[in-house]
Amino acid sequence: MTAMKRRTFLQGIAYTALYGSLAADVFNAAQALEPAEIAGSDPDLHLLRRISFGPTMAELARVKSMGREAFIEAQLAASDGQTDTLTAALYPLINTGGATAYATTGAGFAVNVHQLHLQSAMLHRALFSTAQLKEVMVDFWNDHFNTYIRKNPIPLKLDLDRDVIRPNALGNFKTLLRAVVHSGEMLHYLDNWLNRVDAINENYSRELLELHTLGKGGGYTEADLKALARILSGLGFVVDLPLSATSYGTVQFTAAQHDASEKTFLGVLFPAGGGEEEIDKALQLMLDHPSTALFIASKLCRRFVADEPPATLVDRVATVFSSSDGDIKAMLRAILSSSEFAASTGSKLKRPLEAMVGAMRACGINSFDALLNVNLFGFAVASPNGTLFTGLLKAGQEPFGWVPPNGYPDVAAYWANSNSLLYQQKFLVGLVEGVGYGRVLADPQAALTNGTSLAAATTRATTPRAAVDNAIANLLFTPLPAAAVAAAIGFVAQDADPDAVMETSLLEQRVKGLVFVLLSSPWFLLR
Amino acid sequence: MLTRRMLLPLLAAGATACTQQDAPSPAAPALPSGGKDAATEGTLVVVFQRFAADWMNLLVPMGDPAYATARPNLQITNPLPLDGFFGLHPALVDLKALYDAGSLGFVTATGWVPTDSRDRSHFFAQTIAESGARSGVNSGWLGRVMQRDSAHNQDIWAALAAETSVPNSLQGFANAIAVRDFADYNHGSVMADAATGLQQALADIAGAPGEPLHRLARSIGALAAEPLPAPAVTYPVNTLGQGLKVAAQAIKGGLAPRVITVTSDDDWDTHASQLSRHNAALPAFGAAFKAFNDDLGALMQNVTVVTMTEFGRKAVENLGGTDHGTASSMLVMGGQINGGKVYGQWPGMESSQLYQGEDLEPTTDFRSVLGEILVQRLGVSEAELETVFPGGYAASTHWRRFHR
Predict the structure, then answer these.
(1) Helices B274-296 and B239-252 sit at what angle, rounded to 10 degrees?
(2) What is the distance in angstroms between the Cα of B99 and the nearest Cα belonging to chain A?
(3) Which of B77, B243, B350, B399 has the greatest count of CB atoms below 10 A from its CB?
């Protein structure tokens, strides 16, 4: 273990000795709380935790002034042109065709710049976009229709995200599904471009049924799966290597590679001699199947309500899927306005993405640095060595980095483990070093009154007690139990009077430890 | 010079105030628990090859004339001969050396013997393989192994997931710790360490949702007690190599883990381009086992490694790759393994011998392989085995008896 400076050591003794006695006090005073009690009873905060990458004080104020129903409608209709423009200016390859990006960036080395642009753009939008629900849904569908960013060195993923997922994220599921089936990226990822009459490949057929539409146990057989593989045979894309930047990835159906024999799929006869129209016919059967409505409803409810969502709600949302012909907004309205949603506070855990991005949003984004693309709290986003990148990677949630086709898990049982939490914590260690303390220490009421801009120095806390109160209000938006507040004040004040003015640099230094703790506490990590 | 270690008594004082949980003593040997004989209590390392490895391309049935017919494009024409019938993929030279040295063997044609448990969905098949039964259980098989002895509840490192997350196989044992890289457990700042302590106090208040944070704080404290030894060898850069490196560090560092899980994410889902993908992935796959074996040296006497995968791939190729199938094979390695042999019964690849006319038929239930190790090396009794793997599939009557 590395040696350290004597001053650091003495500081450490002070913290740890203090912590030792406080921990005992806190333990003695502790009473186990239910997750719902930790999450608190503010329905506006609950809504923001679920439909954004993390509440901010400004957004919370907006919900409270508009009302939840109006806010949901605004979010369902929202777009953020300013952020879109800025994102595209910072990461221009996201608006380049995948094949062109490959051909023009000298890509193919260990770190592909186009991949970095797509990943950075995703994080940038999650951090900054005011159309948060849209970005959450883009993330949701990118998981549902997961493809691994590094499987194809030619980044058709750029095209899938830009042309298929983003325009349809709040649109119609049936349109979305058909667009995915006709995307070069998916046809490559699940090997359908190699699925030909003389070499039937079942990979896409299986996952299209199991993961994208009917779901496991949704009423299809192994024979249906084999029939679907043959129906899909011949659907591929132009592969003209060495690369023609204009046509590689263009989806095409090649009749000569299609298995034209007779098939029976989901009980329906596909007579011999069929061609491309078989694919549309099969997709229609899948999309109209009641299992698809139920499966999509259950996944949406898992995302927004609970890891094991109430069956009553899933059934109602499935009915909305059917009656609205797959309208995603209609399903979201049904979920977010339901009593089951209202009763679900504290039943979701943030994944590393929401925890890390949410921490940065809560601390207040340094938008000037972001504008210059210099850093966000001192961390370059567009760098594979950046803290946010490495943190997400090691915690297990690199953007678009999930290899298998089921997408990142959305349940606490997967993420509440020591490894994921460790890297969230390590990210926070770096974050607190770069936090602008004006924001954390500001009087929350003054900050609200003045929008997100920092109020005059007079609104900043100068005593340990006020610093703790402000930090809790600005980062968690919900009160802590008295015992926890006492522990926090003790941590910041140490042997000083908690109500006496503390020298600014010392106060900020100690608040760093407090920020670390608050942002890695269950009060913050519940979604 | 002052060191972090000198700080520890202070940290430990705080920690014990909360939990009565001491950091493990640095040089402690692997302690027997639950009053069992130490000689029968080894460490089990379970490597899960995620997304269905085509073992027919690793452990090649070169003696089966139907093999070349089923795989005109994929067949391995120059395997490393093992026993006259089987050969190893030529990229697995490291496994061949371990096999020849007698420390590694294989069980062929493994899978679910009961046909109603066979399933070709990656996700469902992984879930039930890690549960150890298709139905009737609500935890993972390793979770039940750990549950049977309450002494493990007091031990931070008894169940170690040397990977990014805790796998389903350890469900039911709340104390499992996931470690991707021990080196990162050092926060590198006194402030952060102290804050971790405060966080532990807050986690106490939070009750159940705070439990993972609580465990994390405890494990950070425990690791600060003594840095783990650096590997004595170089591991290949793949998920398996990283996982086995962490596993070896825990064993060598005296953390006394009983079960360790490792993921092998080495590009197994080869629906297409199987030959080139295996050529790229297999050298590092084999090298990881060799590195682990060399790193542990004499400590391998008490360690057993076993691999599993959710199902095998189709006997018949799809031209350039293989789709989802049924039977697979398992690798067993360790000081108590009677290696240098391929165990089990080859079912044959004639279409009349294949399951549903297309897949290799399982002749050994994978649970009997795991059960044999649990009884021989982890002190699990045959009666307890029935709670780990209900239905009798792991009972000694089914064992292939690959232990010395």
Answers:
(1) 10
(2) 32
(3) B243
Dist CA A231 CA A408 (whole Å): 29
Alpha-carbon distance of A427 to B288, in angstroms, equals 30
Sheet with B80-81, edge to edge strand ranges = B59-60, B87-88, B80-81
Of B88, B89, B90, give the one whose Cα is nearest residue B99.
Answer: B88
Q: Which among B7, B49, B199, B205 is the top mutation candidate for probing chain A, defined by the most A β-carbons within 10 Å of its own β-carbon? A: B205
* Nearest chain B alpha carbon to A516: B195
C-alpha to C-alpha distance for B279 and B76, rounded to whole angstroms: 11
Of residues A169, A136, A178, the one with CA closest to residue A52:
A136
| Main-chain phi, psi angles of A292, to 5 degrees | -65, -45
Nearest Cα to Cα of residue A399 among A82, A157, A88, A92: A157
**Average pLDDT value for residue range A63-75:** 96
Q: Is the pLDDT of residue A27 over 70?
A: no
Q: What is the 3-state secondary structure (H, E, C) of A246-295?
A: CCCCCEEECHHHCCCCCEEECCEEECCCCCCHHHHHHHHHHHCCHHHHHH
- For chain A, say whether B122 makes contact (Cβ under 8 Å): yes
pTM value is: 0.88
User: pLDDT tier at B263 (50, 70, 90 boundaries)?
Assistant: very high
> What is the tens place of the pLDDT at every residue in A267-297?
999 999 999 999 999 999 999 999 999 999 9
Beta carbons of B239 and B39 less than 8 angstroms apart? no
Tell me how many degrees the CA angle A275-A281-A283 measures, rounded to the nearest 5.
115
ipTM: 0.84
Q: Which residue of B has its CA nearest to A12?
A: B190
Question: Smallest Cα–Cα separation from A55: which of A392, A523, A426?
Answer: A523
Domains of chain B are: 25-184+235-398 (3.40.720), 187-226 (no CATH)
- In this structure, are residues A201 and B331 in contact, taking their beta carbons and an 8 Å threshold? no
Q: How far is CA A460 from CA A435, A436, A444, A474, in A?
A: 15, 12, 9, 12
Radius of gyration of chain B (CA): 22
3-state helix, strand, coil in chain B (%, to 5): 40, 15, 45
Token digits of residue A294: 């139920």
Q: Which residues are bridge partners to B106 per DSSP?
A: B331, B342
Which residues are CB-contacts of B32 (< 8 A; sequence separation ≥ 6)? B38, B41
Instruction: Judge contact between A320 and A331, C-beta under 8 A.
Output: yes
